[in-house]
Amino acid sequence: MKVICDRAALLDAIILVSGVVASRTPRPQLTCVKLSTGTVDGAGELSLAATDAEISLILRTAKVDIVEPGEVLVPAEKLRQIVAAEDNEPTLTIESEQDMCHVRGEDAHFRLVGYPASEFPAIPDFHAVVAEGKARTVLTIQSGPLGEMIARTIFATARENTRYAINGVLLNRVGKRIEMVATDGRRLALSRADATSADGGDETVSCIIPTKALSMLQKLLVSGDERVTIAITDNQILFAIGGDGDARAVLASNLVEGTFPPYEDVIPKDQDKKVTFDRDLLNSAVRRAALLTNEESRGVRMSFHGEEKRVELTSRAPEMGEADIQIDVRGYDGEDIEIGFNPHFITDALKVITEPEIIMELKAPNKPGLMKSGDDFLYVVMPVNL
Length: 386
Description:
The chain is built from 7 helices and 27 strands. The chain has helices spanning about 5-15, 75-85, 125-130, 145-150, 210-220, 280-290, 345-350; strands spanning about 1-5, 30-40, 45-50, 55-60, 65-70, 70-75, 90-95, 100-105, 110-115, 135-140, 170-175, 175-185, 185-195, 195, 205-210, 225-230, 235-240, 250-255, 275-280, 300-305, 310-315, 320-330, 330-335, 335-340, 355-360, 370-375, 375-380. The strands form 4 sheets. The protein has a 9-stranded antiparallel sheet with strand order 6-2-3-4-18-17-16-10-14. The protein has a 9-stranded antiparallel sheet with strand order 15-11-12-13-27-26-25-19-23. Strand 16 and strand 17 (about 235-240) form a beta hairpin. Helix 1 packs antiparallel against helix 2 and helix 6 runs antiparallel to helix 7 (about 345-350). It is elongated. The N and C termini lie far apart (about 65 Å). The mean pLDDT is about 95.
């Protein structure tokens, strides 16, 4: 193999694909990236592939001249370091000689010891999965709404919880709508968007996607109007970004095993107090009140005064001090109430809400609060004792 690559485009691709490379493994091939040449519509392209045996990624770049087709398997981290270090070079030449990879700049020649390309583990092929009927459903969605759904749920997933199912995000296909749900047992985030189904079916299809896979997918969604095709099998999910026939990236991941909690039961249905906030005003108030909290007293008390359409936020930390912040609300329906929340749980949700107005619904000091933004996002947060 011999290719001449645009250095900047190559570096961007290596940085992305390195995100799925295994860091610790007895199989050195899993620490490598596989470079392969190919053609699309008569033009040459270079594919970079990596996997950690759970998640795999294939990236394609057309910013390359192919002198001699072929493939090579080389350590991902060293290749990234070399390409990054050659920052004065507009192009780099990559050439393979059996298992040796040569990287050449104008005044530099690096020799990287690699492995036979045939030793790279087999990774899922999007076209084969769809063509062979292995997918339970195939969906198409724009990258903008998909990226927003991920951002609005991934922050609420559990971290290293023994209940593995809540370490990921639940994806449901219900008719022409898809929804993502995440929870860590103390809060729950749900986001919805429209999608088209290739099979035209209306039955519900569900799976649990690992957080790592969604974090990687976020980095790949660079254009809001790009098409993303999703194929779900019994134990894997595949994302073809930029179409399916000419996808610039294909991300595949094993699914999380287990049963997701019955989240519908957690969403309150009988809230009798409704408060309408300016998003930025609430965010500022909660962040300031959080300044005087600590691990022992990490709650912020919110005192709602309906007649004055005002909310008072107070916090107190021993040997630190107290905070008292008052803000007006745009609307209030219901009786007065005092309730405590972890301020970080509130600000986490406010960061991913794009609408300028949000609604908070409450029932009692010991009942969960419900935050809503438009018709496609809701967030349940448990109160804390003060």
